[in-house]
Amino acid sequence: MEALHRISVEEFKKCDKTPAVLVLDNVRSALNVGSIFRTADAFRISKILLCGITACPPNAEIRKTALGAEQSVEWEHCADSIAAVNALKSDGYTIIAIEQAKESVMIDQMDLSSYPKVALIFGNEVKGVDDRLMSLCDLCVEIPQFGTKHSLNVSVSAGIAIWEVWRQYN
């Protein structure tokens, strides 16, 4: 790890973070959750809110894909995702759904320059972002796709969106 110039968990917790919170709403797969933790660690995401039925640490499947990132990235379980998103709004976060919708903006057209901090919502692997949460969003962002499939795995979508958020803030 020294050769890779990686910081310790303690150093990670003290360092400046990307001003973004991830909201995982009813994500069914703990393996997806672990993968998102690992990507959140890589790009120093501030926090992950694990909402509804989304698995929480300690969990063997999360640990399998997170590789310890569940210990570095701050997280919280929220039974009610609507209450969690409303609390983020009250705290000044711009709420962004990562979803395919009529009013969506393609991710390469997203401009975060006027938003000091954002919360990205990722929905259930089958149903997507809940309509009740969509109504609370300030923006809906879509990842363009050019193949035969109409969706991406939630952890892949999170990776793409996290990269773009990190890129714009750094």
Structural commentary:
With 170 residues, the chain is of the alpha/beta class. The protein has a single domain, classed as 3-Layer(aba) Sandwich (Alpha/beta knot). The chain is built from 7 helices and 7 strands, in the order H-E-H-E-H-H-E-H-E-E-E-H-E-H. It has a 7-stranded parallel beta sheet with strand order 3-2-1-6-4-7-5, with helices on both faces. Strand 1 (18-25), helix 2 and strand 2 form a beta-alpha-beta unit. Helix 2 (30-42) packs parallel to helix 7 (154-169). The two termini are 24 Å apart. The model has no long low-confidence stretch (mean pLDDT 97).
Low-confidence stretches: none
Across the major sheet, the strand order is 3-2-1-6-4-7-5
Please, how many helices?
7
Question: How many strands in all?
Answer: 7
SSE series: HEHEHHEHEEEHEH
The biggest beta sheet reads: 7 strands, parallel
* Gyration radius over CA: 15 Å
Strand content: 15-25%
CATH class: Alpha Beta
Bin the helical content.
25-40%
| CATH homologous group name | SPOUT methyltransferase, trefoil knot domain
Mean pLDDT: 97
Helix-strand category: alpha/beta
First-residue to last-residue Cα separation: 24 Å
Q: What is the CATH architecture term?
A: 3-Layer(aba) Sandwich
Q: Globular, elongated, flat, extended or rod-shaped: what is the shape?
A: globular
Number of domains: 1
What is the CATH topology?
Alpha/beta knot
